[in-house]
């Protein structure tokens, strides 16, 4: 069973019952047998976001952290910077694949700055905030993300890429 943490970044400071994006991810993962160890909604504050990702990775030992929101070009969009400060290895192919896939629906996806990477035994992936792109990203990338989690936690010793 894969364990996960979910972080929604939103300047409006939604409560969990109002956070449709986080609930989409939560429902999506639970329907696939994931155990959600923590679900957090944060305002756009880089230090708080970095601390939460470190907590989920280092203390809770989740296998996967998915973030939603804060990856565009607005002044308050700090999720990629926070993620880069937390990860130890970048896994750029996940973010590139998600962007490429969603680019088929809108050219504005070129403005997405999401990143992906590894901290310890945790894979961290930034997802879009728009529900349409969020769901399509999960549909497109989750199988590969799961394979990546297995590699990170060393269940796959020999892989061919």
From TrEMBL:
GO terms for biological process: Mo-molybdopterin cofactor biosynthetic process. Residues 5-142 form the MoaB/Mog domain. The keyword Ribosomal protein does not apply. The keyword Glycosyltransferase does not apply. InterPro entries: MoaB/Mog-like_dom_sf, MoaB/Mog_dom, MPT_Adenylyltrnsfr/MoaC-Rel. It holds the Pfam family MoCF_biosynth. Keywords: Molybdenum cofactor biosynthesis. Pathway: Cofactor biosynthesis; molybdopterin biosynthesis. Signal peptide: none annotated. This is Molybdopterin-binding protein. It comes from Clostridium tertium.
């Amino acid at each position: 069973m894969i364990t996960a943490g979910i972080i929604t970044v939103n300047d409006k400071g939604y409560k969990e019952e109002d956070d449709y994006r986080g609930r989409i991810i939560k429902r999506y993962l639970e329907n696939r047998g994931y155990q959600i160890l923590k679900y957090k909604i944060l305002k756009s504050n880089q230090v708080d976001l970095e601390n939460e990702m470190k907590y989920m990775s280092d203390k809770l030992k989740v296998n996967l952290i998915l973030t939603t929101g804060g990856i565009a070009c607005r002044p308050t969009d700090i999720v990629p910077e926070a993620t880069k400060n937390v990860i130890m290895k970048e896994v750029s192919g996940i973010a590139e694949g998600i962007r490429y896939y969603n680019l088929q629906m809108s050219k504005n996806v070129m403005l997405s700055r999401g990143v992906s990477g590894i901290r310890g035994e945790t894979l961290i992936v930034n997802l879009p905030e728009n529900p349409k792109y969020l769901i399509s990203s999960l549909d497109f990338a989750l199988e590969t993300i799961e394979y990546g989690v297995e590699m990170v936690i060393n269940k796959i010793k020999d892989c061919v890429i």
